[in-house]
Amino acid sequence: MMNVKLRGGVLMAETEYGLALLDEKSGDYWTLNPTAALVLEILLAGRGPDEAVQALTERYDVGADLAQQDVDRILTELRSAGLVNGD
Hints:
Blueprint: E1 4-6, E2 10-14, E3 19-23, E4 29-32, H1 34-44, H2 49-59, H3 64-80, E5 84-86
Antiparallel strand pairs: 1-5, 2-3, 3-4
């Protein structure tokens, strides 16, 4: 099971196009497209990457391999930006 949480000081808000994340300390913000928003919401709910892959394949016309690449990339980018904590 994966335990992903937003880092303290990071706020999340739904937008018409997906999600916006705001780092209160730096004032930086990120916009997540619907694919990235879905992945983040699944991970924040305590579900794992496999469930995020499954959700992407069900909602969008993509195969499991491409969905897995998307999930891995999104999680790596969120971690690199310091927006999420967890394993």
